[in-house]
Amino acid sequence: MIVIASRNEGKVREIAVLPAASGLELRPVSDFPGCPDIEENGTTCEENAVIKAVKYSLWLRREHGIAPAVISEDSGLMVFSLLGWPGVHSARIAETDVERNWMVLDRLSGQRDRSAQFLAYTALAVNGVLVESWRGSVTGVIAEEPRGNQGFGYDPIFIDQASGRSFAELDRSRKNELSHRNQAWTQAFEYLRQHSLGLR
Ligand code: IMP
User: Fold this and answer.
1) Atom of ligand 1 at shortest range from CA of 152
2) What is the topology classification, in CATH, of domain 2-194?
3) Given a cut of 90, is residue 189 above it in pLDDT?
4) SS in 3 state form for 46-99?
5) Which of 12, 97, 142, 154 is the pocket-test mutation for ligand 1 (most atoms within 8 Å of CB)?
6) Where do the domains of the chain lie?
């Protein structure tokens, strides 16, 4: 069994259908009674991924007496000319996705360098100990205004330069092929497979 250390059901569903997940037994941490919220107080996405994996792993050992492989993820948008902002704060700079998108656009107004990156980190912990972490990234440019209505978060303002479309204009399978999240989870799942962990 592999425990996915996220209480976000949308994220868990997206991860479970990745090609690299096939043949692995995945369970969201929210399936376990009493599952707590873990404060994401790291200064980088990588730190937050590590914090969540280690703390949920410790909690499962303490409260449920088990020591499965626990994998977490933390992700964000980094705008180069804004020195990586919003980065680790991506989920929290405003109340809604629409407001967050406009906040980024406002800060970039008049800026010629609109290059940006989505970053995702996954981390694996077993028995309360960090085993490994992985990074996925995809580079693009920030649009002049939001476009498209698929996906979530900053997808409407993130342009894939190869197609000229925003991530919210790409169909889901194309976005998944390109995505930072897919890269970070695929590396984690391949590691587990190599070590015969969590196979059905
Ligand atoms: P997390 O759930 O703490 O990892 O939050 C990540 C934040 O970054 C969310 O608020 C999303 O808006 C944003 N983000 C991460 N990945 C993506 C993506 O693939 N598309 C759009 N926004 C994303």
Assistant:
1) 21
2) Maf protein (3.90.950)
3) yes
4) HHHHHHHHHHHHHHHHHHHCCCCEEEEEEEEEEEHHHCCCEHHHCCCCCCCHHH
5) 154
6) 2-194
